[in-house]
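LOG
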Amino acid sequence: MIRRTLLGSLRNKLALVFFAITAAAFSIIYFFVVPQLESNLESRKLDELSRLAAGSEATLEGLMGRRDVPARELDARVRAVADTAGARLTLVGVQRSRGRGPGDLRFYVISDSREDRLAPENARLAARAVTAGKIARGQRSFGGERLGQIAQPLARRGRLDWVALYSRSFDDVAETVSFIRQRLLAATVLALVLALAGGYAVAQALARRVKRLEEGAQEVAAGRFIEPLPVDSEDELGQLTRTFNEMQVQLRRVDVARKEFVATASHELRTPIFSLGGFVELLQD
């Protein structure tokens, strides 16, 4: 019964249509556009990191195989490269077993720009970079934050013995996307309220015009002709109102012609009927 009441009115139907269209549009933005935005922002950060890593490749490869570089100087060089790239840099060495597959590679930390005991190692990503011989991209969770990482293989005399692992936090991307989602939810609520109110107002105006046509049609159906309805627009309802007025004019003409015909026929038939009545009375006498 409630459903019939809600959908039985043109006002409610149009308002619900406006509401549904607005809700669908914002749902698409929230569930498809925003995640795509997050992916694009992360990809852009990794692109920038790859470009900066390419510029530091020669510097890091120049440190390979140099025994005259002490550990402190190596750490300082690594920190300088990391500061330039705006990311954490972990320099790892490559150990190879007898096999040549990615599973036969082992990695150990040579230096880290933050000098922490635990470094954000990513053996799988480093193995992909060494196997492909080019920069590999990925991400992982470390220390409660999500990191975007690139692994850059470093070669000396054609042998890939080091991998530079750059790590950059994606938390700022997550915060940006979360801020956008919050604002989008607020905008969605406001848009839904406006769509419902606006749709109901438009539907109310349309329903008022339809109601006026309905009442006029009922009057004409009862034989009571009314003044022509005002045509206040050129849309479909305006054309319908104009057609209704023309129909009423035609029906009025037909009604006038019918009344004139009945009156004329009555007048013409009245005289012979009176004459017949007189003759009947004479015959009775």
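LOG (cont.) second protein
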Amino acid sequence: MTCSKARTTAVCLPDKRVESREDAMQLREVDPRTLSLVMRRLRQVPEAAVAAKQESMRSKGQLSPLVAAEHEEQLVLIDGFARQAAAVRLQLPTVTVEVVKLTAVQMKVQLYVRNRDRGLALVEECRLVRDLCEVEGLSQVEVGALLERHKSWVCRRLGIWKGLSPRLVTQGGIEQLESGAVRKLALLPACNQEQLMAVNQREGLAGRDTSMLIDLWRRAPGAEARTYLLEHPRTAIELARSTAKRAADPRLGESAAKVHESLTVMRQAALRVVRQIRAGLEQMPREGTLMLRKACELVERDCPWALREVRRVVGTENDEA
């Protein structure tokens, strides 16, 4: 055994040559059609990304190698899915591939590590974490250590994944949502998630609009308001955005919401008066009777006036007929 010193730390190397990273990996020319795409399920490959790579490879050629793992007599692609798809479309006979030897767990870890700087979508992170925990049988602590994340990071993503509609994660589409929208969506029942995603795809809503739509849905006071959201999402979003304080009901602006609340209070107060009168009143002196009589006069004067003012603005059903 030979030993070498660097500063004060001794590093002992065995006589047998140690493989460097360059020794462990190889560059090969490979038919892009023969690469296994089994890991593609853990990554989203937007059409726009494939089209951009296709144009780049057409004009400039391949600028960087794809990365594949030699696993069970297959070359499993772990990085460069858009480039692989572009190469197939361009009918390139071969592409340059960096080939490394990795286990199944290491392949999934490498897929994350190699794309961490560019960023993975939240749903991609959730899917990967779920795969490492439930398919590979790793603990949350082990997954956190491999991905260089805290256990709480792993736990949160598992929770989000379990909250998402299985149908949506199978069909795809939620990968395009902003992280905040995905988190909010996971809090809703699966059927509601599917309804809102159908609206998102039908209307082509931007990320912020989808997040606001989910907020409005969660705060909506009832079924009618939610039906309105599904049928008129853009109108509801614009109305909510135009007010300093978003109304709870997507059909109302801030001022209209306050009027509606006041009218509701008026009606509830009237019903309470009727119930109390029918239940009976105790004996009162003349002064008490005069107080109630005066209150009735004020109500008779002011409440009809308030209702007339509201109807002057909104009209009646007969006006629309």
